[in-house]
């Protein structure tokens, strides 16, 4: 079982428009189901801690409904930890949930940048979907390079911002900013699923890509688990061989002492 930390925005309003926002429920719920069905543990954190604002719940989506009604999830979301007090060593992966609010509080959160870098530096996975990749901006690894530098990354596109009517509201175009920091923005048509895997970074373009991001992260987890089991098996075989060698040496010594 692996431990995944989902990080959510704490922004409840789109700029100064008065329009309500929050984390995208579908982008949290569908990955949550993938991880939960695989037996992994999911925890929650947000930029400011406490109960993060959420966007509209689609009551026709049974996965969103299950997510909002799950007792453990409700408890975890009631009082999330602030990202700057989370111990990254407790987690095997961090997953950045989207929602337009992330455009305001993800990019400049030093706590989030430190958390993401620490998980990745330790060999963990980093996932992000839609506007969640805003949390990949300004993340610097221990080797001095930016996390996204030279990597293929998917995120909400400029065309999707226009289609959603948010292009005049958002503080910047996410796809452009990602490329400015050295990433290659890879995308599909408007609102079509697109998931990109580059080493241990998994990103998705929009809400339709959320489950796909989690599934690709699950594949990477499976590879890690397979390697861990192989290493454990090798260690057990080495230990067994050592013990057998000790037994053989004792038998040989006993036989020689009889003569």
Structure description:
Helices cover 42% and strands 14% of the residues. With 259 residues, it is of the alpha/beta class. Strand 1, helix 1 (25-37) and strand 2 form a beta-alpha-beta unit.
Residue ranges: pLDDT <50 for 5 or more in a row?
none
The total count of helices amounts to 8
Termini, distance in Å?
A: 55 Å
Q: How would you characterize the largest beta sheet?
A: 7 strands, mixed
Shape: elongated
H and E order: EHEHHEEHHEEHHEEEH
Number of strands: 9
Strand content: 5-15%
Q: Radius of gyration, rounded?
A: 23 Å
Q: What is the share of helical residues?
A: 40-55%
Topology record:
Layout: E1 3-8, H1 25-37, E2 41-46, H2 62-69, H3 71-78, E3 81-82, E4 93-96, H4 102-105, H5 110-121, E5 125-129, E6 152-153, H6 158-164, H7 174-180, E7 184-185, E8 195-198, E9 201-204, H8 210-258
Parallel strand pairs: 1-2, 1-4, 2-3, 4-5, 5-9, 6-7
Antiparallel strand pairs: 8-9
Give a quick precis of the structure.
With 259 residues, the protein is of the alpha/beta class. It contains 8 helices and 9 strands.
Relevant terms:
alpha/beta; seven-stranded mixed β-sheet; 259 residues; two-stranded parallel ribbon
């Amino acid at each position: 079982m692996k431990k995944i930390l989902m990080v959510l925005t704490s922004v409840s309003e789109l700029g100064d428009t008065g329009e309500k926002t929050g984390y995208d429920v579908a982008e949290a719920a569908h990955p949550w189901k993938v991880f939960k069905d695989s037996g992994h543990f999911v925890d929650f954190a947000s930029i400011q801690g406490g109960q993060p604002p959420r966007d509209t719940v689609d009551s026709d989506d049974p996965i969103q409904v299950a997510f909002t009604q799950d007792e453990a999830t409700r408890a975890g979301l009631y009082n999330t930890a602030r990202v700057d007090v989370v111990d990254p060593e407790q987690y095997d992966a961090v997953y950045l949930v989207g929602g337009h609010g992330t455009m305001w509080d993800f990019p400049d959160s030093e706590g989030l940048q430190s958390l993401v870098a620490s998980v990745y530096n330790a060999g963990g996975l980093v996932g992000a979907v839609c506007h969640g990749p805003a949390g990949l901006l300004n993340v610097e690894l221990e080797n001095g390079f930016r996390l996204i530098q030279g990597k293929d990354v998917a995120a909400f596109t400029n065309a999707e911002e226009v289609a959603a009517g948010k292009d005049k509201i958002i503080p910047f175009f996410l796809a452009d900013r990602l490329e400015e920091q050295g990433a290659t923005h890879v995308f599909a048509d408007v609102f079509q699923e697109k998931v990109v895997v580059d080493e241990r970074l998994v990103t998705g373009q929009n809400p339709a890509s959320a489950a796909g991001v989690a599934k690709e992260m699950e594949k990477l987890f499976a590879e890690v688990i397979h390697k861990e089991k192989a290493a454990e098996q090798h260690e057990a075989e080495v230990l067994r061989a050592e013990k057998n060698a000790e037994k053989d040496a004792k038998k040989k010594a006993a036989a020689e002492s009889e003569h």
